[in-house]
Structures are given as C-alpha cells and as structure tokens.
Amino acid sequence: MKGPRKRFDLRARRQSENALAVGRFVETRVPRILHPGLASHPQHNLAKSQMEDCGPIFSFILDGGAAKAMKFLNALELVDISNNIGDSRSLCCHPWTTTHYGVRPRRASTWGSKRGCCASTSGWKIRATSSPIWTRH
User: In degrees, to the nearest 5, what angle opens at C-alpha 77 toward C-alphas 74 and 30?
Assistant: First the structure.
C-alpha cells in the first residue's frame, strides 16, 4: 500500500497547486472568487493556520447570472462540465442547475449562492499553465 498512498498525496498536492494558480489567474477577471488559499478569501488566515494546502475546489461569480454562467461552461474545452465536482479531473458545474436545483432561491441566497456562480475542481493533470482555458468566456 505504500505506492498508492504516496501517489495520492502527490496528486492531491498537485490539484491544490493547480487550483491556487487558476484561482489567481481568474481572480482579476471575475467579480468574486472563493478559494481559501487566496488572500481575498474571508477566512484565508484561518485556512492557512489549519492547512498546508487549501484543496482543489473553488467557486466564482460571473456578472450576467445563469445565462453568462452557461455561456462560460459551454465555451470550456479542457475542463469537463459535470453535475457535481470532486474528482481527480478538472470539472466545472453550475450549482443553481445541478447541486442546488431543489433549493428554494431565497434559502440559497442566504448561503451567498448566486445564479452566476460556477464551482470548479482543478484536476491533477492540467498544469496551472493551462490557465488560458479560462479566457475564452
């Protein structure tokens, strides 16, 4: 079991590094992005005090609501669209039409969820230098 565990650690670390790099790239291009590894995250200091890496998952808000989010998702070429996130592959989803679909809009808005929100997980294979995949939108 030594080998698989060691590879898992390397893959998890790579996913975290890629998410942070993509997050830094996207941060200047969207109204809001949430990833605890970014200094702009409201609980960045807490996250850094508790974790070495901050994980592969981040979310961001696009102005223009669901229509803009769907246009963005449909333009992706190297990132797969999924109905949920949390994989070793790079995925992106629109929570309002997938994971949050059955939640009443008023309740979801109390969580800070917006119709223009996209959630993403960075895979371990796509290097952070692939950030231009996010510019086609």
Answer: 65
